[in-house]
């Protein structure tokens, strides 16, 4: 009950206009799914399931894509000289993409018979709006956490400490790395891209790539850490994605819970790889096209999804997805960099201009010494992003994230975590508010 009240207050504090919509849709889904579970007639069960999913995805479609739809209709009407539609822009509720998908996992898992529906309404509301991962994931599948919500748990100080360590690591990623890099990236991409030299363009997109990774994985670490403090084990969301040797491998390592959702609730229902090679390639491409659209209501996200989908299809055709070759890490990273340029720059002509600067072979204006803190932080980020390619890095990762510390180790790590926490708080008080990048999705 404490977690339920805290989560409601947390969401209402950030988005008071939408808390009633969130609670009303959650309560409605809870009772619809219970009715679906009690129904024995298969056709009626499907109708209840369709109704529940329509509520989940209908709200997402309206709030996230209504403006995009009207803007494109108005563009067409103007092209034919027919005037425009009058429209009041719809505001996007915080976290709607994530709690909508969690609601879908609950509905579908109960429909498939994987789990029974929750007995208590309060348990279901906690599952949907649990504040650590409510805003930007990880997307927690119902079957992975159902038993944790209803189980009787004893608070263990070891779990609390390990959760705090994980939280502080995530906070440090966000405040001390992503935000420092991001301030310079925003200035660079907000300036005159047409006069940007090739070296600056490459460093800018590499910096954005690191900013996005440390920002989003930092949020996931914070959510996982807070969950651990309260006795919950949320799934991991990142696994050193930039060490991937193919785009297929990248998507097994980046935003893991979204990839799992797309596979279980979209790719497999579309037929997966069970209906021939041609249909498999089409399903792969469609899934990533929709994944791009999920990230944002803009054409650059659609193109970004199609871009990744094309590489996945080509890798499947050539058998690259089944072979890990170390020499492929660099070309894969270059492909990702171009993709992140499409992802970051929403205006398509500007995006294309920036990509042309990446391959302009113009190095006339590059100056390394202008922002020493920016470059030092960027080098640190790159070092940590690729550290696990080496045996020492793998050992360090296992020790930091997956070790059950003894008492002496806890004291040492506790002191380091407190020191890092103080640095983060100092940085927060000295800089302007910087929301997590994935809040907008």
Q: What is the topology?
A:
Layout: H1 2-14, H2 19-38, H3 42-79, H4 96-111, H5 121-129, H6 131-134, H7 142-150, H8 157-189, H9 198-229, H10 247-253, H11 256-267, H12 277-295, H13 299-318, H14 329-344, H15 348-358, H16 372-385, H17 391-402, H18 407-430
Short recap of the structure:
The protein has about 450 residues and is mainly α.
Polypeptide structure, described:
The protein contains 18 helices and no strands. With 441 residues, it is mainly α. The longest helix is centred in the first third of the chain and has 38 residues. The model has no long low-confidence stretch (mean pLDDT 87).
Number of helices: 18
Number of strands: 0
Q: Structural class, please?
A: mainly alpha
Q: What's the alpha carbon Rg, rounded to whole Å?
A: 23 Å
* Beta-strand percentage range: under 5%
Low-pLDDT ranges: none
Order of helices and strands: HHHHHHHHHHHHHHHHHH
Helix fraction, binned, reads over 70%
Q: How many angstroms separate the termini? A: 29 Å
- Biggest beta-sheet profile: none
Which geometry do the CA atoms define? globular
Features:
single chain, 441 residues, mainly alpha, 2 domains, 18 helices, 70% helix
